[in-house]
Every structure is written in structure tokens, then in C-alpha cells.
From TrEMBL:
It is found in: Membrane. It comes from Hydrogenovibrio marinus. The keyword Metal-binding does not apply. The chain crosses the membrane at residues 12-32, 318-338, 350-370, 376-398, 689-713, 719-736, 757-779, 809-827, 834-859. Its main location: membrane. One of its GO terms (biological process) is carbohydrate metabolic process. Residues 519-714 form the Glycosyltransferase 2-like domain. This is Beta-monoglucosyldiacylglycerol synthase.
Amino acid sequence: MSEKKNLKNDLVYNLLIVLSFTLFTFGSYAYLNKPLEEPSWPATIPGFAFSPFHDDQSPFSDTYPDQKSIDADLSLLSGRVHAIRTYSVDGVLGDITALAAKHNINITLGAWLGADLDANERELTRLKNIVQRPPYNVVRVIAGNEAILRQDLTVDQMISYLDQLRKDIQVPVSTAEPWHVWLKHPELAQHVDFLAVHMLPYWEGISVNKAVGYIVNKMNLLKQAFPNKPIVIAEVGWPSNGRSIGRAHASKENEAIFLRRFISKAREEGYVYYVMEAFDQPWKAKLEGAAGSYWGVYDVSRKPKFEFYRPIIPIKQWRILAISSILLAVFLVIFLLMDSSSLKKRGRTFLVGVAFMASSVIIWVLYQHSLLYQDWISRTVGLMLMLGIMGVWLVILVEAHEWAEALWLQKRRHLNLASPTPVEHHKLPFVSIHIPAYNEPPDMMIDTLNALSKLDYPHFEVLVIDNNTVDEAVWQPVQNHCETLGERFRFFHVSPLAGYKAGALNFALRHTHADAQAIAVIDSDYKVKPGWLKQMAVHFDDPEIAIVQSPQDYRDFDQNAFKAMCYAEYKGFFHIGMITRNERNAIIQHGTMTIVRRSVLEEVGGWGESTITEDAELGLKIFEHGYQAAYEPTSYGQGLMPDTFVDYKKQRYRWAYGAMQILREHAGALFLNKTHLNLGQRYHFIAGWLPWIADGFNFVFTLLAIAWSILMISDPVRFNAPSMLVSAVPILFFIFKLSKMLILYRTRMHAGFSTAVAAAIAGLSLSHTIAKAVLYGLFVGRQMPFLRTPKQANVAPIAQALRNVAQEAILFTFLALLLIGISWHVGFRSVETLVWCIVLVVQMVPYVSAVIFSTISVLPNSSAKWLQFK
């Protein structure tokens, strides 16, 4: 009855917290989209800049709209504008004048002038012909558009064109340049009938709230400098999308605010102006970057992008976005809280909060992406980007779940497995202890055997299987020592023997004593404690238990700083991750300090020789057959750690590569539930490997980030930094993972801050190694040699240590150079560029960690006293 009441209370609390986050999410969307009262758009404005290209058209590809399409555009603008400004008379663009006359629209006719002088002559000749023939609706001529700013033409060349044009036609003539070009070259004003000025405060990094005042100030400067010249604002506008520049942010909301405020002020001041521009022009991205596509008052489909008269709502569809975020969050919450009865309220609140944050970011990124004009390449890249972002959030959710269960569990459901009922000696199982060895130092092996000889256990044997060691001087002393320890100790030297470690263990299984009921395995460097078997073998009194596991531990961690840092990194898995996994009977079996029920081992076919992590694969096979495991987080034996960083990397490469082999071979069991695995077990095995898989795909992201950064430096106009929201995801992911590790080390393992940081550096230093192992294991999959982890190796010099991280050092250097290149060549006027540089710094962290850690590894006398372990 009490349990039902608790479940009901938990359900009520879960519903309340979900409702609270739902209201907060909806309320946040509503608050951020409050209607904004701005001056109304007038029925008619003086002018629009007019380019009639549609989504699949571009002057670069010589794909132009036809007259019918242009006529439809002019019909849409008819009655809403007095005049339009064109930029060229090339091809069908030269017909705009006649088409506009049908709709009572005047023309400020433009001629495109550039570095090609012959093309300029052709353009000006056609312009003169158009002006001098009916329907005579050209009210102004603008020859050249920012040609001096682009340095396509000199001031003297432009003056020559203007003087000749003013002689040949009878309408006012000018050239269009930003306001500062006119002030810089005042002599130019003497050769025009009016100043055609561009006022685009967005490009100058002016905030939308100060933009109109900024234009008024610059107009006053021009009036003072040129008191006798009429001024026409030939371009004025704001983009609805694109990168930020200084304090100027591109958005539909800001476009609407700026234009409605400017038009109201222009009416007061009596400005003649042309709004930049009538319709979005996606082709302009090649000229101006992302923002170039989005200056239109109407989008490329000719639909208005904002309200003209009613209050401005930043995002009209905000209710749809809010509901979508909430629905996705509820789905994630159901998944995260599916088995949360043992979680404290704080843990459940934390998971619900992360789920709502994840859903909001995902929906917002999808919405922002939907606003972009895309070709098939950008659609493909966008799809990959979306999948990547969702993958990152999936890993964050998995990490959050482990975080919550490690920190806020009320009680551990399987904690009783660590305290079994004592069993009488005659009921304890006969245990056969197997020690596979290859080319191991004989003194170390003898220490291992001596420790086993002191076991306080009635029924056991020890089998040493030396496979393929060539030098007799290495294995013979071990064989001799086994003979001195008595008949319990048997030694086998087998050469050749296929199958690596699994092959040696299967050989030992075939030679195990007929009465043995359990098989224990330890590495050749392990010194076990006398009470190991007595404390652990009693778990087999439960017939459902097939695996009994205690942590790996190490006795040389205080030898130097390198080993102490390795030790700190190892402990997190065995004292946080394994305990959490044990809650759902999903521990990772590791190949030392493990004991397996012999009948089950034989039932599943022995040790698998198709993977290089036969221990973890065996554990999964046993779970697939429906058996249980017992994990006791107590150290009953200690081994030796890798002596060098390269050996440390080899060990982790083997683990990660083997995990990918297991994932491929057992995909049916893990994803399709073709065995006795329950949902919790499948979750932990898949989720446990997700961070490694994330490292693999993060390496791909690093390569893409390098490529994109090179493009940004080589062509900063066309290639802008990714949107801030997209760049923020990898930064958030890094901060989240690092915070989780530091907090759990401090709270669950009671480690000092320096110890937690040391563990983080050690873990990060392996990211590149894990990435290579994952990608090779997933996409190449060919069987690779078993990588042993040598013990008691000679420490390499610093030069060798740097060679051991050559790839990491190259990638770090390359990223650092790109960072310098972006800061020097692109600059930080754009917030997106600054955030992108932070992304590059985050991507550098694992590589610099590898360089630091490899250097520490060659300092054998470095102190480990600054690291504290409990």
C-alpha cells in the first residue's frame, strides 16, 4: 500500500514539474513575442530598390526572369510605390522601364559599371537609348553602384563617365556610393546632379534602436558638406537574416522595426529614398554573404515578411514553436523518467529541465534553418547539421541521466548484491583462476602467483597460459615457480595459439579441472587480496548470478603524476559508471577481477575470438541469455598501470574499437530486442558507448570546422561563421560534460578539485584516440591485431613523447593558426565569428590535453602528492 502511495506521489510530482516547465516555456515564448507598437507603413512610399530575380535565378548563371514574371512583380508593387530603382539594363532588365509604365511606376534607371571597361560602354549605350525613347518614365539615372567603394573604378574614371552621361541625356545623373565615400571624395559631387547615397547602418554595426538616428546624423553631415546638392537615399534597409555585425542583428523583427521607424522619420524630414529592397535575392549571398539574400520587404516567394500596419510580432508562429517544443520535451521526459522511481525530486526536476532545454534548442534550430534559402548542397549540409545537433543533444540527455542517477538516487535497488549472506565453506564453488600471459616480465608474474597462493579460500586452482612468447628465458622462470607452489598451480606454454587473449582463455577452459564451477580471470600483473574469492564467490549461491565482478585497481598510482592522473580517470568508471549500470543489471564485464559461472560460460560458447574485447562481449552474451551479474565496488586486487602515454592510448583504442565490434555484432540484440535483454540493459549498453561514438563524430566535425574556417579566411564575404545557436551547441556540450565530471568526482568520489581536473585532462587526452577507434570500428570493421598494454616499459624521452602525439599536436597547431587567421583577417565585429572562435578553442582542448599529458608521462619523478584519493 505504501509503495502504491509513493508511486502515486511520484506521478503527481512528475506531472507538476512537467506542467511548470510547460508553462515556463509557453510563457517565455509569449513574453519574447509581445506585440511591438511601431509607426504604420504608409499606403505609398517613394521608392523600392528592385531586382526581379527568383530563387533559382542569378545573373552569375545568366538565368533571368522573363517579362511575364517581372510584370507580375511590378503589379504587386503598383499603388504601393512611386518609383523603383534598377541596377542594370542588361538583357531583360532593360525592359523594366516599359513594363513599369503600364503600372504607373517611375524609374531610377541604373547602369552597372565595373572593371570591364568594354562592358561599361555597352551598358551606358543601352541606358541612353532607354532614357531617350518612350515611355519617358525615367526620373533619375544612377551610373554605377558602389564601384568606387569596390575599387572597380577610380574617382577620375567615374567622373569621366558622369560628365559624358550628363551631356547625352536630359534627366538628373549620379552614381551611388555609401555616405562616407561622398565625404571622402567631395570632388565627385561637382559632377553629379544629386547625391545618390546608401544608408545601411546594419553594415556599420549600428544597433536597430540607434539606426534611424544614425541616418539622420549622417544626412545632416552631407547637407552641411554639400548644401547645394539634392540628396537621394538610394538604398536604405535592414536584412531579415544573416550574421550580426557589431550591435546590428539581422532578423525579421529588426527589419520591420527599422523600416517602419525610418519611413516615419523620412516623412518628417522630407527624405527621398528607395527601400532596399522589394524582394529577397538569394543570389546576392555570393556578393554579400548570408545577409545579402534577405534585404527584401517581400521574401523570394513574394510574400510580405512582416506586418505593415498592425503591431509587430517577432515570430508570428511562436505558438506553433512553443507547442512543438513542449511536445518534444514531454516525449523526452517520458523516456528519461521511464524508470525513475528511485530518483529524488531534485534528480527528476533536473532531467525534466534538461529535456525542455534540449527540445527548445532543437525546435529553434529547425525553425531558423527553415528560414534559409537553400540549394541541394545547403540542404544536404543542413540535414547533416540537424542530425549532428540532435545527436549531440542525445548524448547530453544520456549524460544527464547518468548524472541524475549518480547524484540523486534515493536508494540503490541492487546494493544488497554487495552484501551476500555468508556461505559455509563446503558450499563454496570450486574456482579455476586463469591468467593469460604474453611476454610478461617473470618477476611481475611471480609476484602475481605468490599473492594467489595466499588466498583464504578452500577450493581453487590456478592456470597460467603463456601464449606465443618466443623467449624461453621469459616464461621458463614462471613455469618453474608454478611447480614450487604445488599442484594447484599449472603452467601451459602454448605456441602457436590463435585468438589472442580469448584464444588463451578458451585453451584454459578446456584444461580446467572437471570439478570447477566458476572461472576467475585476472591479468598477469594483479596482486589479489587473500579474501577476494571468499568475499565474491558467495554470490554464486544465487543460481541466477552468472558474473561476479569487482573493480580494476592499481598499486603504482603514486609513482608519478602521470600514473596518478591515469588512476583518477580510471576510478570514475568503476565507482560512478559501473554502480549506475548495476542498477539495471548492465555492468560491463572487464577481463580482470571477474568470476564467471562455468556452466554459463560454456552455454554461451566460451570467450568470443571475433572481437578484441572478449570480456565485455562475454558479459553482453551472458545478459542476452537472461542471467544476472553482481558488482561489488570494493578493491580486491591491484595491478600495474601503463607506463607511457602511448601504452595508455593503445589500451583505450582497444577498448573503443572492441566496443564498436560488439555493437556491430550484437546490433540485433541491442536494437531489435532479439534476446532476453531488457530495456534497461539495452539502454545502458547503447548509452554507455554513445560518448565514445560522439568523440568519433566530433573528430569529423573538427575536420569540417577546419575546412569552413579556411573558407572564412579565404573568402569572408561568402563564407560567414555559422549561426550563433548552432555554434553554441558544441560549446554547451563541452561545458556540460566537463561540469558533470567535475561535480560527480567532487560529490560521489569525494575527490579534490585538482584530482577532478587531472581526471578530466587524462580523459580529454584520449578523445582523438577514441575517435579513430570508433570510426575505424564502425565504418571499416576489419579485424585488427590485439593491442596489449605493456607494463614496466622504459619511459620515452620528451622528443618521443611529442612524436607519440604527433597527430594531436598537428591538429592543435592547425586550429590555433586558423584562430589567429580569423582574428586577423575576419575580425570579431560579428558575434557569430567570436562564438565560432570559441568553438575552435573548445575543439583544441582535447588535442592540447594530449600534448600536456604525453609530456607529463615522460617525467618519471613528477610528484603525485597534489592528487588526493579516497
